[in-house]
């Protein structure tokens, strides 16, 4: 059976740290907590949970802090989490089973990362991250912010999922780091360009975000999933600026990179709904139901865009074009998949009133 060191970097996480450590403790052999300047009870909680606590002077560089945490590990494998992540009971059991796999000798293991959820607790945004790595390989984290773990060798795609349960948001920190680097004259890598644009977008600086998305896309050096996401996010920026035609062109740009995906189809459908162009919206929502196989686990995606959500939107569109029976048919399909969603409940009352269900 392999041994695992849990390695984490933290700061002022007293509200969530015990929850995180409790969720994973039965599966790991040691817990390494690197504190980057907490002023609350974070270190006290870590020690109470049996973790080894180390201090690291914060230098606006996430990769340096994570690499330092990895250096403190002593087990065969290293697992990393953030303080607001947890392993659900079924995933904890999967990790314990993985530890006991005979002849386990993978260089790295990827796990699903569930970032947000619907009202039923089903993941709405997920992607994969390399979570468990062989310590002897000395894999390194790269990047001051939005860092990534550079791995190579023999990998394994596990069914284990890490669940993100954020209860507070740090606003402006990452953007501040990027702006400071820019002011110092640092040259941004394509990855930096992409994530800087994301930070600008999330902070409402849409015009600047568009410029950086274009710079990233024009360079043609980015990972394809980031390229697709950049087009989608750029469209959202244009939409926020009420520049609908440019938003559409940005979405259509994704077709140069990959076949249409459900997220893209629904996003384009939403634009046509806003423009009251319901026949075009119907086309794209219908395509979303036909393109689920084009989803990629590597990038961000919302599973709802290939299941119940297009049916809800088709219900709206057919109702607006006065095709009530078709609208009712799609409502029934949405209800079969997600009966508790507020829109589905509202539509149920509506069609009952019309005598169509």
TrEMBL record:
Every copy of the Glycosyltransferase 2-like domain together lies at 5-138
One GO MF annotation is: transferase activity
Task: Cite the SUPFAM superfamilies for this sequence.
Answer: Nucleotide-diphospho-sugar transferases (SSF53448), TPR-like (SSF48452)
Keyword list (alphabetical) reads:
Transferase
Keyword Transferase present in the record's keywords: the answer is yes
Signal peptide positions on this chain: none
Top-rank lineage group of the source organism: Bacteria
Q: Which SMART domains match?
A: TPR
For this protein, the record's InterPro entries field holds: Glyco_trans_2-like, Nucleotide-diphossugar_trans, TPR-like_helical_dom_sf, TPR_rpt
Q: What is this protein called?
A: Glycosyl transferase
């Amino acid at each position: 059976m392999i041994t695992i060191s849990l390695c984490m970097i933290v700061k002022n996480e007293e509200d969530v740290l015990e929850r995180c450590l409790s969720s994973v403790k039965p599966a790991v052999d040691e817990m390494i907590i690197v504190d980057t300047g907490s002023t609350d009870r974070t270190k006290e909680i870590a020690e109470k949970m049996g973790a080894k606590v180390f201090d690291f002077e914060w230098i606006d560089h996430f990769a340096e802090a994570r690499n330092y945490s990895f250096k403190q590990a002593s087990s065969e494998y290293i697992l990393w989490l953030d303080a607001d992540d947890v392993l659900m009971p079924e995933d904890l059991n999967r990790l314990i089973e993985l530890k006991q796999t005979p002849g386990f000798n993978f260089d790295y293991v990827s796990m699903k990362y569930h970032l947000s959820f619907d009202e039923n607790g089903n993941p709405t945004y997920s992607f994969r991250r390399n979570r468990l790595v062989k310590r002897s390989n000395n894999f390194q984290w790269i990047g001051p912010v939005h860092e990534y773990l550079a791995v190579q060798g023999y990998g394994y795609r596990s069914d284990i999922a890490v669940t993100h349960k954020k209860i507070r948001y740090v606003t402006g920190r990452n953007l501040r780091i990027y702006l400071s680097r820019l002011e110092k004259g640092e040259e941004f890598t394509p990855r930096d360009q992409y994530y800087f644009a994301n930070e600008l977008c999330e902070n409402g600086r849409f015009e600047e975000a568009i410029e950086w998305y274009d710079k990233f896309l024009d360079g043609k050096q980015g990972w394809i999933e980031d390229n697709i996401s950049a087009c989608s996010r750029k469209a959202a920026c244009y939409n926020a600026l009420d520049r609908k035609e440019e938003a559409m062109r940005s979405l259509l740009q994704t077709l140069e990179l990959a076949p249409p995906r459900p997220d893209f189809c629904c996003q384009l459908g939403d634009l046509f709904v806003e423009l009251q162009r319901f026949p075009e919206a119907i086309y794209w929502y219908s395509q979303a139901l036909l393109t689920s196989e084009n989803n990629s686990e590597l990038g961000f995606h919302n599973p709802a865009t290939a299941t119940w959500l297009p049916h809800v939107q088709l219900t709206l569109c057919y109702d607006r074009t006065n095709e009530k029976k078709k609208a009712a048919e799609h409502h029934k399909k949405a209800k079969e998949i997600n009966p508790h969603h507020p829109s589905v409940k509202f539509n149920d009352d509506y069609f009952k009133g019309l005598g169509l269900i």
